[in-house]
Specification:
The structure is a homodimer of 207-residue chains. By secondary structure, the first copy, chain A, is an alpha/beta fold. Helices cover 44% and strands 17% of the residues of chain A. Chain A is built from eight helices and nine strands. In chain A, helix 2 packs across helix 3. Chain A is elongated and about 60 Å long. At the A-B interface, helix 1, helix 5, strand 8, strand 9 and helix 8 of A face helix 1, helix 5, strand 8, strand 9 and helix 8 of B.
């Protein structure tokens, strides 16, 4: 099992490797990978050696080899169905974003409670009412859910998802969810990014 | 200087401590802090000892003391002006969110290039055109910027911000920015959250 910080970095490397591959570049150095992700090149080398991929002094790493190795870690070959609950500003931005659902994840269904939203089409999917969450998730075999609802709606939404079989949730609502221990919830708080910059500024640091 | 992973965790603890304070709870254990942030309680104890705050066995830590200590780390007492460029789905979600601009950060100005957006009011601010970015940022003394524009617009937007004196940027657009070495950019890629869950599922792990 890799440490979480390493897995997060591997996700960042994967983006850069995809850009390099698109630009038909076949090798990359740990310095380049570090510069493009804001990571320390020594960390880059340590991370890649954990995967068993080794670079050659002078030419660096083979882009295709590392990308394939990282794909294995994330097991991105199996398509994974994701449902999104709450199609307000944030939900729409995520569903419409080319880069949020990548690496094998695909949007399977959208749900909302507002009569003004239900029945409309967002990024090619018709938004369904909340009563459909549990039966639809079950029928789709979706294991992943994204919550972009107001905080007071988050607990109800997660219960409907879990009842249908969802076991992995990305939650953007600032609300602690009560779920069974088998359910994995990742809380996302975007303000942490600003705060991190505030820390860097306060310490007079370079990044 | 604290490691970045610690600083990120401190930001998460701060949210939980604020909730505890609101609920008039005066003490918290490392287990509770760990459970509410998805962190390992041993990491919690290690992080807090780095701040010089020690808990007492049996009762835990004093909520007020740790919260104040973390505020010092982030120097949240100085108000920091932030400008946002790109008021589409994501930009609106961030500007309207009560929780994105907290801990001393305040929205100072909003900019967009679309005639349909310029002149409208979002969360109490009139959206200004791109020609105003540099002079306005200078006049405000804003040091922080958030980019929620399409990737092809990101480089132009960042140049206008930096020319006005912005030195710290949160970039949501999937685009590598060319900036001077003194400018600090944090790239945010929300898909990493889904990918992390994909990794946990693939490894059959518990979080
Ligand atoms: N921490 C951060 O950095 C941050 C930033 C932005 C947004 N957020 C959070 O993300 C969430 C979404 O934000 P937003 O700006 O898109 O909000 P929004 O109000 O634009 O959208 C919320 C959507 O949820 C739907 N909804 C409301 N109640 C519901 C219910 N009971 N069941 C299902 N759907 C319901 C609404 O109809 C709406 O479409 C909020 O919880 C917000 O706090 C957090
Ligand atoms: N990686 C992720 O997980 C993720 C998720 C969501 C969004 N995003 C990214 O965030 C960005 C914003 O996404 P969105 O859904 O809000 O897009 P959007 O199209 O809804 O909004 C973009 C806004 O930028 C404005 N704009 C366009 N060109 C501009 C220019 N040259 N100068 C200034 N403003 C300009 C538009 O008028 C619009 O208001 C995109 O780059 C998107 O890829 C990334």
């Amino acid at each position: 099992k890799l440490p979480e910080a390493t897995v997060l970095r591997l996700g960042l490397y994967q983006r850069v490797l995809a850009e390099f591959a698109r630009a038909r570049r076949t090798t990359i150095s740990s310095d380049e990978l570090g510069r493009h992700t804001g990571e320390n090149p020594a960390n880059v080398r340590k991370d890649l050696s954990r995967l068993g991929t080794l670079g050659t002094r002078g030419t660096g790493y083979d882009v295709g080899t590392i990308a394939a190795r990282i794909d294995e870690v994330f097991a991105t070959s199996t398509p994974r169905r994701v449902v999104v609950v709450g199609l307000g500003n944030l939900g729409r931005a995520l569903v419409r974003s080319r880069s949020f659902f990548q690496q094998g994840f695909e949007v399977a269904a959208l749900f909302d409670s507002s009569p003004a939203v239900v029945g409309t089409t967002v990024a090619g999917h018709v938004v369904q009412p909340m009563e459909s969450v549990t039966p639809e998730v079950e029928a789709l075999g979706a294991r992943f859910g994204v919550l972009t609802v107001p905080p007071e709606a988050a607990q109800d939404a997660v219960e409907r998802l879990v009842r249908g079989g969802v076991g992995y949730i990305v939650n953007f609502a600032p609300k602690l969810l009560q779920v069974e221990t088998t359910v994995v919830v990742r809380y996302v708080d975007l303000s942490i990014e600003l705060q991190m910059l505030g820390y860097v500024e306060a310490q007079g640091l370079r990044s």
